[in-house]
Amino acid sequence: MEEPPPAKRPKILRGDDDYMPGNILEIELFKFMTFDQFKCKPGPRLNLVVGPNGSGKSSLVCAIALGLCGEPQLLGRATSVGAYVKRGEESGSIKITLRGNSKDEVIAITRKINTNNKSEWLLNGNIVPRTNVAETVKRFNIQVNNLTQFLPQDRVCEFAKLTPVQLLEETEKAVGDPQLPEQHRALVDKSSVLKSIEVSMERHKGTLNQLKQQNAELEKDVERVRLRDEILAKAETMKKKVPWLEYDSKKAQYLEAKQRENNAAKAMEEAAKLLNDLKEPIKKQKEEKAALDGKRKKVESRIKENYDKRSEHLAKADQLDVELQRKYKDMQNFREEEETRQEKLEKIRKELAAAELELENLGPSDPGRQEEMKRLRAEISDTDYQAYQVLQPHISHVENEKRCKMESLNTCKKRLNGMDHKVTKYLDVLRDAGTGKIFEAYNWVQEHHKIFNKEVYGPVLVEVNVRDRGHAAYLEGQAAQYIWKSFITQDPGDRDLLVKNLKCFDVPVLNYAGDVDQRKGISEIRDDMRALGIHSRLDQVFDAPIAVKEVLIRQFNLDNSYIGSKVTDEKADEVPKLGIYNLWTPENHYVWSKSKYGGHISAMVEQVGVPKFIENSSNVGEIEKLKFQEKDLEGSIATLDEDAKRSRDKHKFLINKSAELRRKMEEINDLFQEEKRKLHRIEKKRDELKSLEEPIDRDAEIAKFVDQANKLNIQRFHNAMKLKELLIECVAYRRSFIEQRISSIEFDAKIGKLEADLKQHEGVAIRATMQFQNFEKETESCQQQLAESLNLAKSIAPLTPELENEFHKMPTTIEDLNTAIRETISEARSIFTLNNNALEEYEDRQQKIEELAAKLAAEEEEHGRSNTEIEEIKDKWLPALRNLVAQINETFGRNFQEMAVAGEVSLDERDKEYGQYGICIKVKFRQNGKLEVLSAHHQSGGERSVSTIVYLLSLQDLTNVPFRVVDEINQGMDKINERKMFQQLVRAASKPNTPQCFLLTPKLLPNLQYSEACTILTVMNGPWIREPTEIWKEGEAYGIIVCGLLGKTHC
Predict the structure, then answer these.
(1) For position 154, what pLDDT does the model report?
(2) Is the backbone peptide bond immediately before 492 cis, with ω within 30 degrees of 0?
(3) d(CA 392, CA 381)
(4) Are the C-beta atoms of 745 and 292 separated by less than 8 Å?
């Protein structure tokens, strides 16, 4: 169902305050394009925005467009919203206040923008999405993208470039019934659809006729194909009976197999019955044998128990024999030990006497040996103290000190190597800068340094060490380039010698003969300097030998050159007040000069360059210092080596002396130990003698052994009697076991005979069973084949009464049926056709014919419906459009006749090509000329401007937009046309319900006629504009000053 057409837009009427709904009441800008802050209150009718070029008039136009949901592209300037933020700022804002439907309703739209191309929208102070603002703008029919309503300066030329079609579209949107653009778009779309339907219908009609013609040519072939298909269908019906005949054959085979299975089952049952009759006696025999075996197992168990008991008694008898023999042996050992004890007692007595004699021969202890031991201990302690507590720590200290010196020496050598590398690097820099023989000059000075009276330095570049690389650019910028390759002497004779020998190397030679104290005192950095970010002088940021540094300071005034920070850049104008005329900052070099005549100060500012020569490094003076340090360390290490050698020799002597004293003390100690060992041996012998002399009762011990032997013999007798009883019991058990075993063998023989007969009958039963199983499998196979044959027959040809009647007319055997099938197929093949696929092609094509016919009928219906809809819309749209263009033409012709010769606006109608309809503007500016279409090829820029403004004025009475903006449209007009254009604008603005209008221009002609409908907005810009703004910010101020000359005039 179609949507209802939009309601006709009501004519906008003015209120009591003379404003119309959607009029702009106030524009406020902040950090936008050329403005820091801007605020104006436009009038309700014609607003003349005047001001010099570059003052910001077009900024006002951009603000209106962007603040009312316009895109940056429509302004013809920057393509991103961030570009409209004032340069140097991060963000800005646009606030536009619109009048609502009543006087009391005010709508404030705010758009905040930033340099990241982000926007934030506020509606009456509340943050809202852009769509809410767009709906509000659309409600008042504000179209900032429509050139007939909004014509910025950079797009004035685009209006003349509008094609008639585009001009019609823009005019429909701006004036007249709001349904016109909708109806126009519907006509364009529906006519496009109608054309596509017509093309499709023509294509389908051609295809349909072609298909019908092709099918007519195939009708004869189709008849022959159908006859052949009928014969082949008869053959196919015969083929359907084949599986049913095969099914009957399988059914007969199944019945025969089933009968054989039943016979085999009867034979198997008879064999099974006979087999059961033979198994019963065997079962009884086995049960009796099992009972006998149970008794035999019990006897066998008792025999085993008897055997275990006899084994225990036999083991006990063996154990008693062993214990008895051990008792007899203990008696014998006791007699032998007694004899041995007597012999040993005699031997110990002799050894004790001999040891006591040896102790007497040693004589009494010598007291002098104790004193000698004390003296040796004291001397050893003193020697060890000197060796380990005095000399050894001293040696360690000397070695540690030597190690530290060696580390310092290695560090010094590494630094020297690094210094030599950096010097080479700096010499490479000088050579690359144009001093090709700087290496030769440097080497000559180094090789002949002994012939100079005083120290010679150079080149200066390798002598200077700048601690902060950022200051290197300042020093290079202050000093002349020649100084870096110069050599400096401190004696006139050295200077002359150096000039003579270095002349061929093209290097300057400077002589320093002054005294540091001769220079006047230099003040330190004061607090007022630090307040401006000044922190040091240029002579304080580098190190160099005194002569080198003084030459640089005196040659280039380094002690009067100061260094500041980024803060100093911001306060650079205050630096000369402190008496500073040379200043370096991270980005700029300031040099101020004072006129000798007028006393005024002029400044020169240069950008700080990149250092080409100087880097952070040590200088040659430091190299000499390191070489001296290297020699001093080598001498110290040699002295420490000699001290360590003397200490190690003395330490070795004391160690040897201590070892000799320990050897003497060990000899004395050995004598003491020998005496102690002899005393210990005597005591031990006495203890052994004492233990052997203790009395022993020999008869009592032997009687004890005899009593124990008798007890063991009694136990042996009792054990033998028990063993006899067990043997008698075992013989009785063995006899019973043998009898039961014989009975079991007899049972086995009987059972074996019965089982042989059973086995013979089992063979017969097994063969009967196997035969039954084979017949059963055969029956199952036949049954399965029968089911498969039935399923196959049903799948090929399900049996129906009609088909069964057909089968009765056919042969009843498979052989006869196959013969009939072959004959029928031969008959079908005898029918010849040129196109075997004729029937298939005919039927496919017939189906396509039916489908195309249905499509064609649907398209004809759709075509009629679309044509009706187009005519209905056209009947509404075209008369209204013709009437609108006629009104525009009447107003345009009248207005244009006042400014030029003649002009007309016509509707370019293109029948049903609704997308090609357009508005054609024709003008002529000369009496003898003819009407020409408005374009850049026929009219000048001023003529196009006149035509454009006249066309826009012609829309005034018909427009439904709340305001219109035209930027500098009067540029290029002559004075006469500009005056006429202005009079028409004033006259149009004075009409009751014309929209609010903004005309931006850098100038106005004098003595123009104004009315109360005019509001003049003067845009000025500059550093002294703030104070006048305070006076002029109220709308009545200008009227008060001019004494009501122009009525109510706003600014």
Answers:
(1) 56
(2) no
(3) 15
(4) no
